[in-house]
Q: What sequence folds into this?
């Protein structure tokens, strides 16, 4: 194995070498390549027999009395020996940082020694395709040493995350082009369906998809001089072919959001400098105010313009020729790395959209991370119903299937729940990735037998209400796990997941699932937490801005150095989400930083108030209530809170509810606005930016001179409610 940082290992003095996880094969390579003789102890055996450990001469610490283990380590260190403690010995390589064995923590607490974190990386070899031009690398990474002090546990966990992140970033397979990898994968799957268009029920086999995409790529190469090509299509056969063709042509696909309105899209079109756009006739008729470029191509008629003979010949060549020759003839580069692969625009829920260029390395890294998260659950079929202008839809429903993921059954509209449920039943789909808003519709409208094939549901984009997850699991018998990500992270950062091969409800079944959290950090990603006001680094257990670094993290916003500078600190991407991490590595999200209001010198989280209202008003308004708390300017206090709700409740009810739950009076909203339905984003979550606009408008109108001076003061016992 190659070493990085071996110079940190002392040449003569004793030291504790702390290795988070290893297999017996890893340890053999470690011992054979370390520059000094080292004694090895094992903190925790995971599905490894004790006899195997003893045969190798290793000390199983969990089977050794605590005092005896501490004494043994101290004696070895006093003789200037290197003592390697393997936190967890496993039969297969692992890449996720979770809990620290108690016996190891006790030993470190009782000995005074130099501590050196080490990461043995044989993990990623299992998650890169055999079609990669470069074989996965195996190496040993050594972090900088430290003497034990009061914050050593936090430092050690951060060190393991850093080394894990470095291990993934150094994988040579991440330097490839996603088009190159898709080419190899589609050749492997030439006679098997890769996508099935759920709307037309037509399958796309590897060779059919490859042949059609290569034909379109040739046309794009000859007729589109600009580096970026626009796409305005729902997920389906046409969108898959066009996106892949754009990549094959050496261009960058830009999938525009068809739901945000003309003003937002005008910004996106102008910033991306797109001059050519692929869309559909029905969309052009429906979205007349979209800023259509002069060169807008109707995809269906465009594909029909090619003769059947030419299409057949393209498919024939795609099937016949080896992938390297195909790549040479069509000019598909092998290397992509840090070059821009796709351009996405944020939804603009908290302002105008930002261009997020994701590199080939970003996408390949995140797909590898997704594979690790789901490594305990064999997934053969995925429902692809998320829009591909959204980061979760782009990576999980488009690029993952094209780069070695499951067979994906796509459908154009995520709102047609009954149709989606029929597709799940028809194709025996095993994985559903959705949002809590859509999940609630499945619970309401679908019978249990329709979803019997599902192994797991993963939700993201908004907070999963525990009651909803419990109700869904009770009705359908399918576990619901909450995940987390951002567009800037390509997008997956973490996810809860169960192990279906373990007894239902057992500790092993839920070892990687902790309700209320968003799961453990994806392998190969590192984390820091910064104080929201001072930006000082905090312990991971503290509440602050979650910040990340890794191969899946983007490098900056499109042509926007000011926003880029504001979103990074010393190389760490500041997510804008406030949260913390527990001692087992589970991540907890409290809210977005822009969903806090500073009132009376106190940071007030809007999401916590919403949760309180859902809990306190449940009997009065039911479970399906939509609630949004927003902050608007206030001349006296700087900011005041407003509740928007789709039930008729009054200020006194809101105040009574929150005070009964122990909330401070500072946290009590002063106005309630009733709406039939709260504004939503394309993924069905509440659009807080539009809510804030509504609240601000109502506040201004409430204080116009023409308003009645006898109107009840918000917050008084008299009912006071605005209907919008």
A:
């Amino acid at each position: 194995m190659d070493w990085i940082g071996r110079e940190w290992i002392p040449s003569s003095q004793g030291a504790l070498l702390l290795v988070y996880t290893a297999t017996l094969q890893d340890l053999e390579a470690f011992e054979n390549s370390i520059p000094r003789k080292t004694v090895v102890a094992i903190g925790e055996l995971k599905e490894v027999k004790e006899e195997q450990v003893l045969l190798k001469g290793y000390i199983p610490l969990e089977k050794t009395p605590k005092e005896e283990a501490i004494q043994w380590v101290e004696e070895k260190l006093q003789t200037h020996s290197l003592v390697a403690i393997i936190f967890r010995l496993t039969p297969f390589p692992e890449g996720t940082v979770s809990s620290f064995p108690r016996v190891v923590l006790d030993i470190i607490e009782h000995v005074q020694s130099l501590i050196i974190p080490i990461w043995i990386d044989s993990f990623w070899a299992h998650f890169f395709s055999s079609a990669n031009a470069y074989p996965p690398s195996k190496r040993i990474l050594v972090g900088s040493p430290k003497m034990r002090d009061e914050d050593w546990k936090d430092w050690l966990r951060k060190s393991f995350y850093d080394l894990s992140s470095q291990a993934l970033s150094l994988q040579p397979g991440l330097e490839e082009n996603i088009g190159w990898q898709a080419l190899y994968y589609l050749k492997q799957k030439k006679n098997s369906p890769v996508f099935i268009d759920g709307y037309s029920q037509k399958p796309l086999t590897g060779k059919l998809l490859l042949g059609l995409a290569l034909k379109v790529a040739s046309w794009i190469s000859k007729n589109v001089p600009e580096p970026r090509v626009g796409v305005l299509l729902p997920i389906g056969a046409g969108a898959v072919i066009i996106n892949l063709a754009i990549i094959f042509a050496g261009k960058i696909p830009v999938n525009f959001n068809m739901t945000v309105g003309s003003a937002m899209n005008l910004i996106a079109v102008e910033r991306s400098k797109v001059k050519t756009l692929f869309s559909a006739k029905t969309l052009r008729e429906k979205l007349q105010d979209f800023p259509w470029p002069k060169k807008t191509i109707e995809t269906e008629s465009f594909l029909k313009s090619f003769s059947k003979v030419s299409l057949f010949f393209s498919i024939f060549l795609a099937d016949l020729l080896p992938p390297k020759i195909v790549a040479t003839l069509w000019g598909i580069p092998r290397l992509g790395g840090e070059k821009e692969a796709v351009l996405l625009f944020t939804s603009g829920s908290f302002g105008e959209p930002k261009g997020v260029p994701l590199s080939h390395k970003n996408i390949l890294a995140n797909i590898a991370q997704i594979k690790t998260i789901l490594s305990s659950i064999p997934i053969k079929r995925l429902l692809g119903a998320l829009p591909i202008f959204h980061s979760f839809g782009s990576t999980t429903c488009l690029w993952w299937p094209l780069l070695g993921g499951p067979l994906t059954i796509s459908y154009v509209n995520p709102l047609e729940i009954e149709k989606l449920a029929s597709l799940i039943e028809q194709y025996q789909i095993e994985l559903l990735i959705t949002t809590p808003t859509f999940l609630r519709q499945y619970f309401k409208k679908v019978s249990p037998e329709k979803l019997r094939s599902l192994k797991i549901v993963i939700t993201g984009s908004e907070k999963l209400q525990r009651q909803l997850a419990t109700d869904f699991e009770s009705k359908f018998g399918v576990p619901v796990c909450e995940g987390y990500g951002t567009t800037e992270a390509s997008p997956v950062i973490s996810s809860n997941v169960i192990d279906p091969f373990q007894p239902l409800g057992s500790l092993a079944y839920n070892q990687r699932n902790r309700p209320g959290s968003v799961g453990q950090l994806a392998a190969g990603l590192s984390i820091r937490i910064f104080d929201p006001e001072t930006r000082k680094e905090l312990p991971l257990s503290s509440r602050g801005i979650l910040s990340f670094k890794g191969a899946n993290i983007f490098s900056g916003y499109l042509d926007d150095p000011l926003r880029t500078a504001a979103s990074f600190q010393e190389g760490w991407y500041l997510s804008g989400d406030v949260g913390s991490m527990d001692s087992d590595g589970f991540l907890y999200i409290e809210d977005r930083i822009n969903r806090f209001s500073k009132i009376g010198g106190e940071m007030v989280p809007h999401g916590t108030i919403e949760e309180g209202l859902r809990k306190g008003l449940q009997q009065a308004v039911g479970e399906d209530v939509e609630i949004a708390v927003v902050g608007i300017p206030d001349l006296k206090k700087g900011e005041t809170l407003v509740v928007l709700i789709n039930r008729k409740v009054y200020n006194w009810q809101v105040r009574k509810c929150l005070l009964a739950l122990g909330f401070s009076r500072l946290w009590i909203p002063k106005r309630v606005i009733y709406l039939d339905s709260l504004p939503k984003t394309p993924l069905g979550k509440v659009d807080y930016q539009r809510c804030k606009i509504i609240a601000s408008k109502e506040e201004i109108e409430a204080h116009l001179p023409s308003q009645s001076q006898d109107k009840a003061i918000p917050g008084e016992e008299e009912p006071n409610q605005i209907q919008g």
The chain has a mean pLDDT of 91. The chain has 23 helices and 35 strands. The chain has three domains: 2-151, 178-587, 600-723.
